[in-house]
Amino acid sequence: MTTKELLIKAKNAKAELNMLSVDEINGALLAMADSLVENTEKILEKNAEDVEAARGTMSDVMIDRLSLTKERIAAMAQGVRDVAALPCPVGRVLERIERGDGLVIEKTSVALGVVAIIYESRPNVTSDAAALAIKSGNVCVLRCGKEAHKSAEVIVIALQDGLEKAGLSRDLVLLVEDTTRQSANELMTADGYVDLLIPRGGKGLISACVKNATVPCIQTGTGICHIYVDGSADLDMAVKIIENAKTSRPSVCNAEEVCVVDSAIADKFLPMLKKALVDGRETNPVELRLDTRAAEIIVGTAASDSDFDTEFLDYILAVKVVDGVDEAIAHINAHSTNHSEAIIANDPATAEKFTKSIDSSAVYVNASTRFTDGGEFGLGCEMGISTQKLHARGPMGLNELNTYKYIIKGNGNIR
């Protein structure tokens, strides 16, 4: 099937979703979750083929991001069930105005229509995106990278089987067969067919979508996330948080990439950081890329200017020493991708200044950046992390996949 033929199917399927009840949608989601579990072995088999083909061309951390296990598939299914349990945003009255002449104006939440997602090597995005799209009343068009296509294909078939068992059309979730740039370009320019395009991947993919898309597009994903350790910080807490933010899963967009340290505590803190991230790790020690001031305190790799503008997605951490919170804020706002930043500080005034001054979608005080996630935010799962300001920002859940229209009820009113 060509991408154009698939988009026609998606557009035609919109009408079915518009007429479904919440119970029918939730029943379909639960059937989709069950089908994922029932097809675990098939999914693992195809995922193993993707992983084997990727070996030698992808880093170990990216291989981990591509890989599925029984536990990860079970978690994907649970994510779909969690979305089913959430309130449906479609039809909510956001605002109601009653005019003196009896005219009633209701600002009402409605689905966008067809939501297309371009993503790379994370098979779990397939089920997350499908669940969120359907629960929010949208048809889902998926276009994954070639490195995960076999996995995505069998996952989509399982999801479609669930839809069919629930009595709904398989066309509510569709996977683009073409993995070349041509299909991505077709989605970017599918005016009249795609109501929202969401790219989930590296800087190159997102930049291409922003530059070339003629359909509405959300910037997501790229995460040069910073943690600033203030002079007032609990240093043991800071080490624990940074270890989690950097090493728990370095291949994801909410992992820390830059550590900014107050010079007031740098002499004491940096050796603690090196001990935890480098000396104390038998496997996957973190490479510390140090600015000039940090290199005077601990041993590491000399940082280049580009290291403070790089999303490593690996066991690498850039380290910079600054003189206080003002310099930290200036550095972060100059180099951030507006994803997630954190301050470790016990001084409330300093923490408040940081949260008010940092221009990112998620700003933390004394917590890891790894919490920037739809599931952790209570959204069930997420369509992506929006790093722009309109119309969505931060983890995108059900509400961000709706727009609104005005429904006006009268009784022969004329103007």
List keywords for this structure.
about 425 residues, alpha/beta, 7-stranded parallel beta sheet, 4-stranded parallel beta sheet, 14 helices, about 40% helix, globular
Major sheet attributes: 7 strands, parallel
H and E order: HHHHHEEEHEHEHEHEHEHEHEEHEHEEEE
Query: Percent of residues in helical segments?
Result: 40-55%
Shape: globular
Query: What distance lies between the first and last C-alpha atoms, to the nearest angstrom?
Result: 50 Å
Strand neighbour order, sheet with most strands = 10-9-11-8-7-12-13
What is the percentage of strand-forming residues?
15-25%
DSSP, total strands: 16
Rg is 23 Å
Q: Structural class given helices, strands, pairing?
A: alpha/beta
Mean pLDDT: 95
Task: Return residue spans where pLDDT drops below 50 for at least 5 consecutive residues.
Answer: none
Number of helices: 14
